[in-house]
Amino acid sequence: MSFGECSKQGKPHLCFHRVYNRADEANMEQYNTNNVAKVRCLGNSSLAREHMVNQLLVGSSDRQVLRNQMRRGSNECSLEVLVEGQRPGATGGDLEEGTAGVLTSAHWTVSFRKPDPGCPALLPGLPPRASLPRPPGRLDPGHVCTLQMGVGDFISGRDRHRGESVQGSGGRRGGEEREQWEGCRARVGGIQAAVGGSRFLSFTIDANLATDPRFLTFLGSPKLRTLARGLSPAYLRFGGTKTDFLIFDPKKEPTFEEKSYWQSQGNQDICKSGSIPSDVEKRLQLEWPFQEQLLFREQYQKKFKNSTYSRSSVDMLYSFANCSGLDLIFGLNALLRTADLHWNSSNAQVLLDYCSSKGYNISWELGNEPNSFRKKAGIFIDGLQLGEDFIELHKLLGKSAFKNAKLYGPDVGQPRGKTVKMLKSFLKAGGEVIDSVTWHHYYLNGRIATKEDFLNPDVLDTFILSVQKIFQVVEETRPHKKVWLGETSSAYGGGAPLLSNTFAAGFMWLDKLGLSARMGIEVVMRQVFFGAGNYHLVDENFEPLPDYWLSLLFKKLVGTNVLMASVKGPDRSKLRVYLHCTNINHPRYKEGDLTLYALNLHNVTKRLQLPYHLFDKQVDKYLIKPSGPDGLLSKSVQLNGQTLKMVDNQTLPALTEKPLRPGSSLGLPAFSYGFFVIRNAKVAACI
Hints:
- This protein has 687 residues and is an alpha/beta fold.
- The protein folds into 2 domains: 3-151, no CATH class; 198-532, Alpha-Beta Barrel (TIM Barrel).
- Helices cover 27% and strands 24% of the residues.
- The protein has 16 helices and 29 strands.
- 46% of the residues are buried.
């Protein structure tokens, strides 16, 4: 039965058939026009967007049809379902016999788990099966490993009246670069995931800033606090390698710089305080490059020394967090050990007592990347012992003013062999006492990373496998625990010089935020807000870098409900799109609006066209491009053609949108990224 024969039945209908190679347009075209043995028509079905999902592939007979159509023994494990029909042009609703309208379509991709030969356990780009939302219909979850769905009318790349694909080929015509068009597939019928509220994007201050506590005085800068406040609400994690080499000394006197700062504030409200004394700030900024070199040398040589910090240091850190609207998470030293390698909690107890006396509201961690303790300190702690240590800390908190405080851990590194083993044993032994599972991720070694690495979609995709490994461990041991990315950036070792602090780093950062939200990571903590290295959001002169502005836009525009979006077209890994409900705290937007954010790694302009039911909506564009002659390596950015910079030390600039005419395509120039807010979309999942 062909599509033509199916449509002649005179009833509202949905048809599906097997497409053996969905990347091969000629093959698809052949199957659309020729007779196909396994075509099935479902009569009297509605094409209303809200109901389409529930009318497909329900019941055991349909499930069996799918299984029968799989080619056993091959490496091909996906089945594409092509749904076509006539939709009334203006008002939508059910099809009626004889009604003229626009030919529309929707695609499903269904993949089967083993023992189907050659079927991967998971396909890239989607969360583990256990964390997927329940599939529509009654597909047996024991046989489904991924279910990727897009619902909508594909107008771009498709003639509206004939339903034919129009493929952009790049190249040039008439001396001008041809723009390539892609169809954007967006599922807007339900929520795929929900991130950890408005604190999904959070950030860190590395504990190495306290190696010499004088430099914590930087945190008193009103400009730095203004920038931090712009990203609030958020968690502020104080942690990193030096966490396990810092010892609290309540008797230690403040440094001259700290004392000068506190004296300059007098008795006024500390959150409305003045600047760091100018002579102190200038001296610290002059000395900071030398301090950075000392920290890098210590890191590369892996010869770490203990340092002490005072009550003043704790006060400075807490004041910065509290006055900036941030929730402080403080990492405790896990390398303080007894002779039998149990954690020595005495110093932690002293710190808890002090923080309690000040009425501080703090959450806690214990240790940083315990999988590397042997390299850093010559001490091996297994997951079982670490779990017992967390139980001990949990008991301490329960006996203090922090009995309701949150505890996070174990902050392991990348999920490789021994690290995965440690995480499993830790979660079995002590996972019950933590509120979220934390782990760390970096794409690259900062010492050898290249610009090409930062623009390589294969590098970006490595994050997917790491997330899947973490979720698999958590699902096997503590299936109801939330997962946080407790420390992350582009490249480890302080970042990649002249890369991690440039516009080019934004591709990694925005893609990681999108994938994390889609795959169910609840919180992502960016390393670092301010401090040593090349991956900071704010530089040593308190000037915001490209990733700061990207983070600020994300905070203002992106809401917590995550929807599904994907691109239809060749080489889709270079045009990456993500879809959320819009942040309704933005005064311009309201419930039901959508925020699409995208990055274009192609060297040509790409244009996205929205699905038909969103085609007439007004869209606000927020396009980010590098500013100045350095191109991708620029340390400043433009938003819709205007260079972003602070108005003054206490005022951030307006993030001004560029409204597009209804029906306009969403253009992304080569090597750019941006946000598109679809206004008045009235998406049920966002209301």
